[in-house]
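# nightly structure sweep
# worker-07 picked up a monomer target from the shared queue
# config: single-sequence mode, recycle default, output format = structure tokens
# input follows
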Amino acid sequence: MLDTIVVGAGLVGSAAAKYLAKAGAKVLVLGAVKGSDDHVHSSHYDEARITRRMDPDPLWGLLGLKAIEAYADIEHQSGIPFHTSCGHLRIDLPSASSESLHAQVFENAKEQDFKPEILTEHDATARFPYLHASTLSSYLLEGPPAGIIHPQKLIRAQLQLACSSGARTEPTVGTQIKKENGVFSVRTSSGQTHLADNVLVSTGAYTNLFDLTPRKLDLSIRPETVLLIAIPETLLHKFDSMPGIIWHFDDHPIYTNAYVLPPVLYPDGVYYIKIGADHDRDIHATDVEGYHEYMTSPGSMVTKRALHDLILKLIPDLRGLNTTSRPCLLTYTQSGKPIIDQMDAGHFVAVGGCGKSAKSSDQIGKLAANMVLSIPWEKEFTQSMFAAL
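# output follows
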């Protein structure tokens, strides 16, 4: 008999498991394994996500701040480095534009007691000569510890810390949760059944596809292709100073923003610069097999071409380099915030990253764990912020 079963071993589930186990709970973590016959996938198998405190939404900024503060301890305790402090650059519309988020981002940063550096076009060109800087943009630079995180390494670190506190992991998919006489039974794809006093569901895009919650959640699943540009080692020195970038613009027929990551070494031995933007409008997948077909494909070729045109506008020096594309599945909520809520007595959920949760996953997992443990949240957070609508 377990205290809590965490269904989902991604960024949020692994963080929650760590905090539950550290509090002394008897924890089992169920999570899919890449390439298994379950045909269940993580949001995307990637090597880098942007981490930052700057955000136009104060709640996402606060979640980022709290999570970033824990990075060093996680690395030290696990021995697994996952964080690179290369800084973060926000390229926004001019402050005078009605669509600009520059002032809002700057004000939220001040509330967190840090002041981003305001760059002119000349500053941006001098600091980052590979960028096609424009007088039609504003620039905010956030220094370390902003930068990038390596999500697969972070998951390994969190699960290692969870297991060192007594948690167990099982490489399988939770397919059904039932409650009888106050006890939860969780059925898995491997045919096992586990019993617990509590369950925490953190299964991202697959939450509504299995029988895991008392009612379906209001989630929107968006396929999103990212483009990877291969950087030869002879050109890497050009991008030594490159931060993670979020770019907001108003001169594209479809996209209004994009994110760009500096060169990162991938498992195939190649350094890639990554760009992503809006979701794939030509992809329509609604079930496990549809998601599997998409996640084992190169994604949308329509999106790939659009992203290639976009990245060349920002970094013209990338023209002529080899490219590839990767698929991902993002889970959005109606509120634009993650759902961290109690669906029923002992039945909890932590889902809906809205494309922003990787950097904040440790704090989201901590809030979810504390809800399960009936530990009051920090005063900055209220349950109404994260309610399942």
